[in-house]
Amino acid sequence: MSSGLSLAHEPVSKVPHGKLAMWIFLASEIMFFTGFFGAFIVLRNSNLELFSHSAGELNKWLALLNTFILIGSSLTMALSILNLEKGNTGKFKLFLGLTILCGFGFLIVKTIEYSTKFGHHIFPWTNVFFSFYFLMTGFHAVHVIAGMIPMTFMFIKAFTKKGYNHPVKVETLGLYWHFVDLVWIFLFPVLYLIFPSH
User: Fold this and answer.
1) 148, 74 in Cβ contact below 8 A?
2) Which of 75, 101, 118, 133 has the fewest CB atoms within 10 Å, counting from its CB?
3) CA gap 49, 145 in Å, rounded
4) What CATH number was assigned to the domain covering residues 17-193?
5) Residue 125: exposed, middle, or buried by beta-carbon count in 10 A (0-12, 13-18, 19+)?
6) Where exactly are the structural domains of the chain?
7) Are 97 and 155 in contact (CB under 8 A)?
8) pLDDT digits (tens, 9 = 90+) for 155-190
9) pTM for this model (two decimals)
């Protein structure tokens, strides 16, 4: 007699459910940010002088610093996943902690940038360029914070007696974090660099 039907919840695609759900979520986020970028480009092309002048008010060096911070955080995130898979919990905690520090560093630099803008009386309602600037970078910053919350939970759990031994969950969070970094790599040139000089 044949064996009974297995009820094990093995994904048909062989991709863990959590990771598959993350890919679907990221696909929806890509469409969301694509709408932002599309609207920005259309308005930019009809307001070149305004956008060019307003972009000149941005601090490209702080934005470049944040770019390096996020690129570094992608590396440390990947190393944390690699070391957890190898069972090296010490290095896992080290690299995950560095990733969290990079996230805080990014937010601190962004806070400095925002504070400078407010100090110069530049607000989201100043003009259409700054409306998009604050909307897009602010929405991105919210994504950074959203990624740091579960990351911090994993980091704290790693120091408990049971530790944290869920490589797939960390890898799934890593997908999200790499997406956040990738979005910034697009935001940086679009907002800070791609404008006519006059």
Assistant:
1) no
2) 118
3) 34
4) 1.20.120.80
5) exposed
6) 17-193
7) yes
8) 999 988 888 888 888 999 999 999 999 999 999 999
9) 0.85
